[in-house]
């Protein structure tokens, strides 16, 4: 199949993409979306196509495009829209309202990843550029446990920093959970926030100084990977925690010995078989009744002891698995 190299011109930047001539106009729009975050319905691509209108199913070969042709794109990106919304939400947060990030999520039944092969190629390129700063070396033979921070292990508030209210931010049994799982796993923290806040949370909440467990390394939002997926048939460009970035740097870990726990299933989009979605922790929602970490710890202990290949277990059914083994 012939492949065309197209140069998209948007906001003064050039985006070089490749597309097969057998692909469709819709595919071209999604490709532009994956590069710029301008949603297809907000795009204006300046084509010199004459004749029938550019419907979604029109083949690229029918558009009269040349190899290395430049196409001007107009449209407002989701990132620009989200920046404006964030300003508004931040103002609300500073007024005392909680700023949450779980207003958009997925489940296996309503989501599909677009062009996984292209995403994996881009991921390989990204992996070559990033560096991982090891705090505590991996231990031989230990599988990998990747943990989210906010709403998984804690509910952070910058207003509680430098106060005696640190414990109120922690999910119940958090330190106990980390102590238990550390016996079986090397622990990596991956937060969807900037490094400054990751560092504050880890240090101020005592996660780097506890003598009973150690964090191998921590990652922040800068190494999250952008993909395009369809939720209920609608495209959405969003960030994910692509475990392949870790596996590319630490070859002793793979999908067979890695599990990722997060309150947002969208972060599993590149590696759904490795994800376990927990309930989101909110310190204002009866925290004294929250025993989720104790139950997940029990599941992780069983997983590490009974299974050399984690892909043999469906983590979506972790509670049923735990109940079955606890009843024996």
Automatic annotation (TrEMBL):
Q: Which GO terms describe its cellular component?
A: nucleus
Localization in the cell: Nucleus
For this protein, what reaction is catalysed? O-phospho-L-threonyl-[protein] + H2O = L-threonyl-[protein] + phosphate; O-phospho-L-seryl-[protein] + H2O = L-seryl-[protein] + phosphate
Query: Major place of localization?
Result: nucleus
What cofactor does its activity depend on? Mg(2+)
Give the protein's recorded name.
protein-serine/threonine phosphatase
Domain of life, per UniProt, equals Eukaryota
| Pfam families (UniProt xref) | NIF, ubiquitin
The UniProt record lists the EC number as 3.1.3.16
According to its UniProt entry, the protein's GO biological process terms are: regulation of proteasome assembly
Q: Which residues form the Ubiquitin-like domain?
A: 12-74
Sorted keywords for this record are: Hydrolase, Magnesium, Metal-binding, Nucleus, Protein phosphatase
The FCP1 homology domain, residue ranges: 138-303
Class of the enzyme per the UniProt entry, highest EC level: hydrolase
Q: Which GO terms describe its molecular function?
A: metal ion binding; protein serine/threonine phosphatase activity
């Amino acid at each position: 199949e012939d492949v065309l190299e197209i140069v998209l011109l948007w906001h003064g930047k050039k985006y070089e993409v490749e597309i097969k001539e057998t692909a469709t106009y819709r595919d071209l729009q999604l490709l532009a979306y994956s590069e710029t975050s301008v949603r297809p319905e907000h795009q204006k691509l300046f084509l010199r196509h004459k004749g029938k209108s550019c419907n979604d199913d029109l083949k690229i070969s029918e558009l009269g495009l040349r190899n290395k042709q430049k196409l001007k794109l107009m449209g407002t990106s989701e990132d620009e829209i989200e920046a404006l919304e964030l300003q508004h939400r931040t103002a609300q947060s500073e007024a005392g309202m909680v700023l949450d990030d779980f207003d958009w999520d997925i489940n296996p039944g309503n989501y599909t990843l677009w062009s996984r092969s292209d995403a994996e190629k881009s991921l390989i390129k990204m992996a070559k550029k990033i560096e991982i700063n090891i705090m505590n070396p991996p231990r031989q033979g230990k599988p990998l446990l990747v943990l989210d921070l906010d709403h998984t292990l804690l509910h952070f508030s910058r207003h509680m920093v430098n106060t005696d209210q640190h414990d109120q931010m922690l999910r119940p049994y958090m330190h106990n959970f980390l102590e238990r799982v550390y016996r079986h796993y090397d622990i990596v923290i991956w937060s969807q926030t900037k490094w400054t806040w990751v560092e504050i949370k880890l240090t101020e909440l005592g996660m780097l100084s506890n003598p009973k467990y150690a964090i191998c390394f921590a990652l922040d939002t800068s190494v999250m990977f952008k993909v395009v997926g369809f939720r209920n048939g609608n495209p959405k460009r969003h960030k994910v925690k692509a475990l392949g970035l870790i596996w590319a740097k630490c070859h002793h870990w793979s999908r067979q010995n890695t599990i990722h726990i997060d309150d947002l299933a969208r972060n599993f989009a590149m590696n759904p078989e490795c994800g376990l979605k927990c309930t989101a922790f909110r310190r204002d929602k009866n925290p004294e009744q929250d025993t989720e970490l104790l139950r997940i710890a029990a599941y992780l202990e069983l997983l590490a002891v009974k299974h050399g290949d984690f892909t043999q277990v469906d983590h979506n059914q972790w509670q049923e698995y735990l109940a079955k083994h606890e009843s024996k």
